[in-house]
Design goal:
By secondary structure, this protein is an all-beta fold. Among the domains are: 2-122, Sandwich (Immunoglobulin-like); 407-419 and 438-652, Methylamine Dehydrogenase, Chain H (7 Propeller), CATH 2.130.10. A 4-stranded mixed beta sheet has the order 1-5-2-8, with no helix packed on it. The radius of gyration is 60 Å and the shape is rod-shaped.
C-alpha cells in the first residue's frame, strides 16, 4: 500500500494532493509492523531548517500481521531539502493517544527519483482487541492492555464485578454493578456510611439505616427501649412507646404528664403546676370522725379520706372536734385545753370492803362500769352501784387463790389463779361456782392473766396465760370435755393478757426465759401461734399489765416504772419512765395499766399511787393508803382500781351538761 504525504503545494498534505511538477524527488517511507493487527501510525515530516514547516499523516494499519505500509513524502517548494521524518504508534485507531517515544530519521529529498526511509514498528496485541500489551519488552511499544490474553479486558471494556480489572483502571473500583455496603462502627449488625464495592469490605454490613453508629444498642428493627429524648430504633420517632407528654397520675394521685425518668427505661409523672396535694385524714379509732393523717395527695391515698381533720386524737373515741368537754383529763373537744370549764372530781375510796386484811388482785367492771367483780386469794364478790352492799360467794368452789378476773357484758365472770384453777359463774344461781383445774402434772401452771372475746349470742371465749408460758382457751358451754384446751406455749413467764374482739388482737406480756427481759407475744388468727415482739427493754424486768386500746395502739407496763407503747407498723417504743414519787425509795413497779387515749394512760404502782400520762409527762393523781393492784373501766369517766386491804378506788365524772 502506498500513500502520498504532500509536503509542498497542497493545502492539506493528508488529503493526497498531486505532486508539484517542479519538484520531482520524494522520500519513500516504509513502515514495517509486527505483533498487532490493528492500530495507527502517525508519520510527520518537518523541515529541518524551519520547524514551522511540518505536516503529518495518520496511517491506519490495514489489519494483516506482519506487514508494511509505504508513504511518499514530497517537499513543498519553499521548504528545505532535508526533512525530519518521525513515526508514532497509536492503539486501535488514530484517535487514541500516541504511544512510546517517536522514531526519527533525517533524509534529504533527492532532486529526482526517490529515497527509501524505512521504519520498523513493533507492539504486542495477542488477544486482537486493538490494545497493546502493557508489559515492557525490548523493542516493543507498550500499550494499555493490562491483560493481553483476554479480549474482554482492555481500556474500553465496561468494568463489572467479576474478580478482574476489565478496563485496566483502578481495579474494580469503577465497576458499574458494585454492591452497596455500610460501615458498622459499633458492630451491631447495622451500618451508617454507605460504601460501594464488589467485595464486602472489612467492618461493613449489608444493612444500613443505623442512626447512631457509635452506640451498639441503637439500631433499626428493635423496640424503643429508652426514654431519653432520642431515636433508639431509627424509625424517625422519639420515645414513641413511652407516651411522653401523655396524661398520668403521680404517686400523690395528682394529674401530670409523662416525662423521661432518670432511669432510661422508665418514665415519671411530672405534676401539673395547677395540682396542689393536701393532707387527708381517716378514722382509725372508730369514733366516726377522721383525724388520722393518711398522707398527702390531690386525691385521698386511701378510701374514705377527707381533706380536713375532724379529730385531734385518733387514738381515742373520747376525743374529737366539737365533742362536749367532760372532766376526765382529756381534751375531749380538741380545743387545746384539757377540762376547760370544769373541775375534775375527787377519787372515791371504799376500804376494807371484804375485810381490812384481805387483798384484791383484780377488778373487772361491766354494764358501763355500774357493776363488776372483785377477786383475790379465796375471795370472789360482785359489785352493783344500784344496790347497796357487796355479794360475796363463799362456796369452796369459789374460793381459790385468784390472780385475775374478766367480766362479760352479760355479767358472767371468769377468774383464774394458782395451781391451774379457773372458775366461772353468773350472778344468778346457787352459791357454787363452776371451777375446773388444768392438768396438775404441768409444773407451775399458775394463771396470772385472763381476757375474753365477748359474743352476746354464743358466749365469751376466754384466754388465760400462766407462769410456765402456757396459754389456754376456754370456750362455751365451758363444762364439756374439750371446752378447756391448751393452745400454745411460749418461752416466758406470762403475767397478763389483753385484746379486742378478735383472736389476732390478743397480746400477752411477761418476762422472757432467755435474758429475763420484758417481752410481748402476739397471737395469730387461731391463737395457735404467738409471735415474740421485743419491747427494747435492756434490764431484767417483768411486764405485769397490758391494755389494747384499739387496732393501732396498745400499752404494756411493769417493773422499774417502764411503759411501752405499740403503734401499729412502728412496733413497740418506750414512753418516759415513771418518776419517783415524793418519799419513795426508788422508781416504783407498775402493776396494771389502763388507757383511754395516747394522752390518757393510767397505771397503779407499788408506791400506792395512781399515775397518769398525758402524752408528754407523768403526774400522780391519787395516793392510796395501801397498794392498788388492778385497774379496769369502760370509759375515762368511769373506772376503778382495787388492791390491798380489799380497797376499791373509784373515779366517776359527771356527764356533760347539755347546751
Amino acid at each position: 500500500m502506498r500513500l502520498i504525504l504532500m509536503a509542498v503545494l497542497c493545502a492539506s498534505v493528508l488529503a493526497g494532493c498531486k505532486k508539484d511538477d517542479s519538484k520531482a524527488g520524494a522520500l519513500n517511507v516504509t513502515l514495517a509492523y509486527s505483533g498487532f493487527a490493528r492500530g495507527c501510525v502517525t508519520v510527520t515530516a518537518t523541515d529541518v531548517d524551519n520547524a514551522a514547516n511540518t505536516n503529518s499523516l495518520n496511517v491506519a494499519i490495514p489489519g494483516n500481521t506482519p506487514g508494511s505500509v509505504s508513504v511518499a513524502v514530497y517537499r513543498k517548494k519553499d521548504w528545505g531539502r532535508v526533512l525530519s521524518v518521525t513515526t508514532q504508534l497509536h492503539e486501535v485507531d488514530c484517535s487514541t493517544p500516541a504511544l512510546g517515544i517517536p522514531q526519527e530519521k533525517k533524509a534529504q529529498v533527492p532532486v529526482e527519483g526517490s529515497l527509501d526511509v524505512a521504519f520498523v514498528v513493533r507492539a504486542n496485541d495477542a488477544d486482537g482487541d486493538g490494545y497493546f500489551s502493557s508489559e515492557d519488552a525490548e523493542g516493543v511499544v507498550t500499550g494499555s492492555d493490562c491483560k493481553d490474553g483476554d479480549p474482554s479486558v482492555h481500556p474500553s471494556a465496561e468494568e463489572v464485578c467479576n474478580g478482574k480489572d476489565d478496563n485496566c483502571t483502578l481495579g474494580e473500583s469503577d465497576a458499574i454493578d458494585k454492591k452497596t455496603w455500610y460501615e458498622d462502627v459499633d458492630s451491631d449488625g447495622y451500618g451508617s456510611t454507605r460504601v460501594e464495592a464488589c467485595v464486602q469490605p472489612a467492618g461493613t454490613v449489608a444493612t444500613g439505616g443505623d442512626c447512631n453508629d457509635s452506640d451498639a444498642l441503637v439500631r433499626p428493627n428493635r423496640d424503643e427501649f429508652r426514654c431519653d429524648g432520642k431515636d433508639d430504633n431509627c424509625n424517625d420517632m422519639t420515645d414513641e412507646v413511652f407516651d411522653v407528654d401523655g396524661p398520668c397520675t403521680d404517686e400523690l394521685k395528682c394529674a401530670g404528664k409523662n416525662a423521661c425518668a432518670s432511669t432510661p427505661s422508665q418514665t415519671t409523672c411530672v405534676r401539673l403546676p395547677s395540682e396542689n396535694p393536701v393532707a387527708w385524714f381517716v378514722d382509725s379509732d372508730g369514733d366516726g370522725f377522721k383525724g388520722q393523717d393518711a398522707g398527702l395527695g390531690c386525691e385521698s391515698p386511701v378510701d374514705g379520706g377527707v381533706p380536713q381533720s375532724q379529730d385531734c386524737d385518733e387514738s381515742s373515741i373520747y376525743v374529737r372536734n366539737e365533742l362536749p368537754e367532760v372532766c376526765d383529763r382529756l381534751d375531749n373537744n380538741c380545743s387545746g385545753v384539757v377540762d376547760e370549764g370544769c373541775t375534775v372530781p375527787d377519787w372515791g375510796t371504799d376500804a376494807g370492803v371484804l375485810g381490812p386484811t384481805d387483798r384484791l388482785n383484780s377488778i373487772a367492771l361491766y354494764d358501763q362500769g355500774q357493776k363488776g367483780w372483785i377477786a383475790g386469794p379465796n375471795k370472789l364478790a360482785h359489785l352493783d352501784s344500784s344496790s347497796p352492799g357487796i355479794k360475796e360467794f363463799t362456796d369452796g368452789s369459789c374460793r381459790k387463790s385468784w390472780n385475775a378476773a374478766w367480766a362479760a357484758q352479760d355479767g358472767r365472770v371468769f377468774v383464774v389463779g394458782e395451781d391451774g384453777w379457773l372458775s366461772t359463774r353468773t350472778l344468778a344461781g346457787n352459791e357454787a361456782c363452776f371451777t375446773p383445774q388444768v392438768e396438775t402434772d404441768k409444773n407451775n401452771t399458775d394463771f396470772n392473766g385472763v381476757f375474753g372475746i365477748d359474743d352476746a349470742a354464743a358466749g365469751a371465749t376466754i384466754f388465760a396465760v400462766a407462769s410456765n408460758g402456757r396459754i389456754y382457751r376456754w370456750a362455751p358451754p365451758y363444762n364439756e370435755a374439750g371446752n378447756l384446751v391448751e393452745i400454745a406455749q411460749v418461752p416466758a413467764n406470762l403475767r397478763a393478757i389483753g385484746g379486742l374482739k378478735s383472736v389476732d388482737s390478743l397480746i400477752a406480756v411477761g418476762n422472757a426465759n432467755t435474758g429475763l427481759t420484758a417481752q410481748a407475744y402476739r397471737a395469730n388468727s387461731t391463737g395457735t401461734t404467738w409471735a415474740a415482739e421485743s419491747l427494747g427493754a435492756s434490764d431484767t424486768s417483768f411486764m405485769r399489765g397490758v391494755h389494747v386500746l384499739n387496732a393501732h395502739y396498745a400499752y404494756a407496763a411493769g417493773d422499774n416504772g417502764r411503759v411501752y407503747e405499740w403503734t401499729g407498723g412502728a412496733g413497740w417504743n418506750a414512753l418516759p419512765q415513771l418518776p419517783i414519787p415524793n418519799g419513795a425509795p426508788g422508781v416504783p413497779d407498775i402493776l396494771d395499766v389502763l388507757s383511754f387515749s395516747k394522752n390518757g394512760i393510767y397505771v397503779v404502782t407499788t408506791a400506792n399511787t395512781i399515775a397518769f400520762f398525758n402524752g408528754s409527762a407523768w403526774s400522780t393523781e391519787h395516793t392510796a393508803a395501801q397498794t392498788l393492784r388492778s385497774l379496769d373501766g369502760p370509759k375515762p369517766t368511769r373506772f376503778a382500781a382495787a388492791g390491798d386491804g380489799s380497797t376499791i378506788v373509784n373515779f366517776t365524772a359527771p356527764a356533760p351538761t347539755p347546751p
